[in-house]
Amino acid sequence: MTWFLLSVGAAFFMASNSAFIKRFFSDLSAWEMSLIPYFYGLPFFLAALPVIDIPPIGPGFLPHLAWVLPLLMVAIILYYRAIRLSPLSLTLPFLSFTPVFVLLTGGLILDEHLSALGVTGMLLVVAGGYVLNLDSAKYGLLGPIRAVWHEPGSAIMLAVAVLFGLTSVGGKVIILESSPLFAALVIFSLYGLVLTLILILTGKASLKNLTRRPLLGLVAGLIVFAEAACHNLAMNLTAAAYMITIKRTAGLFSVLYGWLLFKETGIRYRLLGTAIMTAGAAIIALWG
Predict the structure, then answer these.
(1) CB within 8 A of 44, min separation 6: which ones?
(2) What's the CA gap between 283 and 267, in Å, rounded?
(3) What is the pTM of this model?
């Protein structure tokens, strides 16, 4: 059950990071919002590198890193654009569709085989995503699905789910070709360094905006550091599809944050949807 607890921890830190950035940095552009946690997390990732043991590096490490890193950059920028545009309770839960794509990519790339109960749990998570917009069912059976396209952040987050379906599986290969902590530190150190240079050189971000609230930025950096550690440690212990499914219970935390911090409405169906997702996650944890 260690992988399950780590995955829930990754979900909690993911939702906490999103709520924190939305609460304190929404006045910045989506580009700068996407950079803040990793800009301030960079010292933590770099400082931890000399402390851990350097594992043997497999031949697949660099080739997979070469395509995972740029895809991850695109996914994370879109992710912060989504939470900037729309309520948390109608954006993060749509990442619950990631396991569907992981089911396909995990089988192709990692040759992972999932049990019938594991797949059932994943389908429940996806069904929960439908229920999130159940108040739109009055417009027909496809109403909740159509509602996604009326909420720009939800539609963008579905695109993010597709990208995360690829990067999650590619990330696991990087872990298997090195170690969980080493993979996390290398990926996010490079992410912080490369994206900072790209966004500043292209004028999409300014150091003045990035350094305006350093204490809040350091908190964001610590949160994303904790998320990355939990994510990679859990990914090393179970099938990528299972780990990502449990991490998508971040939707439950996001609904609560949306209600408590941002006074978001329509919480009844969103809580029901996330409860169904949580039930699916429990099935995966106990019998998957």
Answers:
(1) 221, 222, 225
(2) 24
(3) 0.78
